[in-house]
Design goal:
Blueprint lengths: L1 E5 L3 H11 L4 E6 L2 H10 L3 E4 L5 H6 L7 E4 L4 H14 L4 E5 L20 E3 L1 H14 L6 E3 L6 E6 L11 H7 L4 E7 L4 E2 L12 E6 L21 E4 L3 H9 L2 H4 L2 E5 L2 H10 L4 E4 L7 H4 L7 E4 L4 H13 L4 E6 L9 H4 L3 E4 H13 L4 E7 L4 E7 L20 E7 L5 E2 L12 E7 L3 H7 L5
Parallel strand pairs: 1-2, 1-4, 2-3, 4-5, 5-6, 12-13, 12-15, 13-14, 15-16, 16-17
Antiparallel strand pairs: 7-8, 8-11, 9-10, 9-11, 18-19, 19-22, 20-21, 20-22
Helix pairs in contact: 1-13, 5-7, 5-13
Length: about 450
């Protein structure tokens, strides 16, 4: 595919990082020369210096020959106008725009056609949904949840005290009663897609897929409360906070307290969400958690505009006794690697959430979602099995993935979520969870494309 990306900032660079690994032809448009030069130095792609709302610049970038135009600048208006220009002058080009300020109905992000834009991604909405899914699945440490499934992916660090150090994946599955699949392993040297003979070592990080109840023996210090009984502290009255609250049930809202330092914003949230407690206070006041009797809460989610404040708040909350904490990162994605060092249970990036959503819209109608794991070295795809594909009607043991990926889970039309064995036969309509090393995505995709 030939893809043009407007905006060589964080989102554009991360998109190109993934797409160039798949040998896609990427061209950037950006009016900032320094930013453009930086991304061209890092990645194998082309660049045009100019304004994406200028039709001459779009023509210079050969938009007429492109398959997809993606606008991910930090300016909604530029993203809307540029995609509108492409849609009107080059109607065969698919357009995707990142737009933060559009309204939301609460349960759907479908916002209709806007200036002919093919797909709209709201970074605030996709981030809020991700956070809600984490909360809704039991505030486990380091998890990913999936569409229409109660299966989760859990990143588990192996230490010397565990009995399965030095054992193979096959031995581990045979000895333990838990039904799970190890989808990826990150060790000191690299990240691999394991097979049955792969040996587990101390300090390995295992990405494990299974049902929460089956993984409970691995997940330490997990709250046993139901999702409606979690006591949650939200810090910062942002748009992401608002979208998160709109997803919550009435029972959940009654167990939420919001801390916000601006009285005007406090009033807005108190009016829209009368079930929650809104506290007009500064979270940097070290006494606020103890004086307000919040140290016995189950979870703190820091959603302010400051990356650094969110990290400090999430770390401090756990020191004061709050069981779990989540920090939002809006700007510096390098902070994602600090999760384990700071003791924070999850660091959520608006950039990564947006990029994963855009990538899923590029993959085709049978791709439900995409998730990056283990520092971006692995990707987890949710595919729907369609007729006339290489894998439809085949047993898993007969599908040759050449060590490039592993089918970790399946959910079928009967709403059964399956941690598969080699004897399972893939059927049309099955939803399949595939773990893929980042450089091998293209090969795995061919298995799920019709007529290939």
């Amino acid at each position: 595919m030939k893809i043009i990306i407007l905006g060589a900032g964080r989102r554009g660079t991360r998109l190109a990082y993934h797409l160039t690994k798949e040998d896609e032809e990427i061209s950037f448009i950006d009016k900032n020369k320094t930013r453009l030069d930086t991304v061209l130095y890092k990645l194998d792609c082309m660049g045009i210096l100019g304004n994406g709302t200028d039709i001459d610049v779009l023509k210079q970038a050969n938009c007429a020959d492109a398959d997809v135009f993606i606008a991910v600048t930090g300016n909604d208006e530029i993203n809307i106008v540029s995609c509108g220009l492409v849609a009107s002058h080059f109607p065969n080009v698919k357009t995707i725009a990142a737009i933060k300020k559009l309204g939301w109905s609460g349960k759907s992000e479908r916002m209709g056609s806007l200036l002919g834009i093919s797909e709209i991604v709201n970074p605030n909405i996709v981030t809020a949904k991700l956070i809600y899914n984490i909360v809704n699945n039991g505030i486990y440490n380091n998890i990913i949840t999936f569409n229409n499934s109660d299966l989760i992916l859990y990143n588990y660090s192996v230490d010397s005290s565990k009995k399965f150090v030095g054992k193979s994946i096959q031995e581990l599955r045979r000895e333990r009663k838990d039904n799970f699949v190890v989808a990826a392993i990150k060790n000191k040297r690299n990240t691999i897609v394991p097979n049955g003979s792969t040996i587990i070592h101390e300090n390995d990080i295992l990405s494990i897929v299974g049902k929460p109840k089956n993984l409970s023996s691995l997940m330490t210090n997990v709250s046993n409360k139901t999702k409606d009984k979690f006591k949650i502290v939200l810090v910062g009255g942002s748009m992401i906070t608002r979208f998160f609250l709109r997803q919550c049930t009435s029972s959940q809202l009654k167990n939420i307290i919001l801390i916000e330092m601006k009285s005007e914003i406090c009033n807005q949230f108190a009016n829209e969400f009368p079930q929650i407690v809104v506290l007009n206070a500064d979270i940097t006041d070290e006494s606020i958690l103890t004086d307000s009797h919040l140290t016995n809460y189950d979870l703190l989610i820091s959603l302010t505009e400051s990356d650094e404040l969110n990290l400090i708040t999430a770390t401090y909350a756990k020191k004061k006794g709050i069981v779990r904490s989540i920090a939002l990162i809006r700007h510096n994605i390098n902070y994602l690697t600090m999760e384990s060092y700071l003791g924070i249970d999850s660091i959520i990036s608006t950039t990564e959430s947006t990029v994963e959503t855009v990538l899923s819209k590029l993959r085709g109608s049978n791709v439900l979602s995409i998730h990056s794991i283990l520092g971006g070295s692995m990707e987890v795809y949710e595919y729907t099995v369609e007729e006339n594909t290489k894998i439809c009607g085949k047993k898993l043991s007969d599908i040759n993935m050449k060590g490039k990926g592993i089918i970790a889970a399946i959910s079928n039309k009967n709403c059964k979520n399956i941690v598969p064995t080699g004897d399972y036969v893939l059927k049309c309509g099955d939803n399949v969870l595939v773990s893929v090393s980042s450089g091998n995505v293209k090969y795995i995709q061919q298995l799920f494309i019709k007529g290939k």
